Amino acid sequence: MRVLFAGTELFPHVKVGGLADVMAALPKALRALGADVRLLLPGYPALKRVTAPLEPVMALGNLMGGGEARILRGRCPAGLPLYLLDQPAFFHTDEPYAASGELPLRFGALAWAVAHLGRNGDGQGWRPDLVHAHDWPTGLAPAYLALGGEPRPRTVLTIHNLAYQGLFPADLLEPLALPLDAFQPDGVEFYGRIGFLKAGLVYADGLTTVSPTYAREILGPAGLGLEGVLRQRNGRLRGILNGVDETVWNPATDPHLPRLYGPDHPEARSAGKAELQRELGLQEAPGAFLVAIVSRFAAEKGLDLVLEAQPWFAAHQVQLAVLGQGEPELEARFLAAARLHPGQVAVHLGYDEGLSHRMYGGADALLVPSRQEPCGLTQMYALRYGALPIVRATGGLADTVVDATTEAMAAERATGFTFLEPQTAALQGALTRALALFRDHPAAWAGLQRRGMAQDASWRPAAQAYLAFYEQLLG
Ligand code: ADP
What we know:
Shape: globular
Number of helices: 18
Strand content: 15-25%
CATH class of the largest domain: Alpha Beta
CATH topology of the largest domain: Rossmann fold
Strand order of the largest sheet: 3-4-5-2-1-6-7-11-12
Largest sheet: 9 strands, mixed
Helix content: 25-40%
Bound molecules: adenosine-5'-diphosphate
Structural class: alpha/beta
CATH superfamily of the largest domain: Glycogen Phosphorylase B
Number of strands: 18
CATH architecture of the largest domain: 3-Layer(aba) Sandwich
Oligomer: single chain
């Protein structure tokens, strides 16, 4: 089976969030099962640099007014076969979503290139049976393919996050080479605008999202206006939980950790904790409960709840370590909290891959209070690294963390702590339960750590589920 994977991020070269991790790991897992998966991404400078040699396979002319475009073929350092859309006027930085007026045309060009390669092949004998698009930037690819008629490859669109829908003015219809009669509610139109994600939801043969719970949630209010379309297409929608790339995320081999450890010896993490406290300027107290956050600062991540819970952290002398960046107001409020509580609250603004690993490896707990979380990868990394997740039970967080209730503890199933209401009191309730277990029942705490670390979180089951879905769509 030949599959063309199309998206806008690829770990470790171009990464904004979890999409990058998925784009790197899932094709690898699918290839391990025998599928011939190749990637198509924008020709970002960072990707062109690492993907040598690159061979031009096809010229596409002036795409969407962004100048001469062509498709190059190469292989990324991890070994995956890769096509790049080389169009320097559109893809001249490594920031996929940098705001600019040309954004819709840039991703229109990408989607068009995906559809073109999908339908015609690469001119060198490779043509996909199926095109797998990811999120709104490639949402128009299934539309171009369906509107262009048969014969064409089957199409799948994966929703990594419905909060980003790619909505643009209707007057871009013609520049985007979309037919006028597609501008209607069962086409690309969404409340008077062109919806890139909406288009994908309507025209793709199959839809997936990244956890079973999120697949159910988006049929209701979490659908953010798209729940009607999603309900119509529910028969073609699957929720498939993301996995963890165990070659990157393994505390027994991780080059970013000061000391390596495995599931049998979670106590060996203490060196990493001390190191982390030093690195971040936290008080070097081995007994202090250290809670970490690694997150984009976006409204849906629920970080305002953590800011409101600051008095709780101070009153219980619980340490808080935050790594993230995003909304300026959240950045300013976290910095203020760190200034107010030196040694107890540490905030590192920015993107730092190595520090993120050290936080999963050194913190006692990882806090993920998301209002919405399609899958969430940080809690899965935390589980593998022995930092117990404290999460709001939504989307993939609900599917991956088993709350330490009395019953779950007795049945030896608990892996972390969950709370339901997106409210500070509920968050503090979960934190209080976690703190009590940490301080008063260290052996039970270590038991939870060992269970989380030993779980199989590989991509294999997800890859098998995607393959089964592809096969179903290909009839
Ligand atoms: P989302 O995709 O919504 O951002 P996920 O939990 O699915 O959330 O994925 C987030 C990914 O980005 C994880 O790999 C996490 O470690 C990483 N990450 C987020 N913020 C940072 C940061 N500031 N520095 C380093 N890694 C980060």
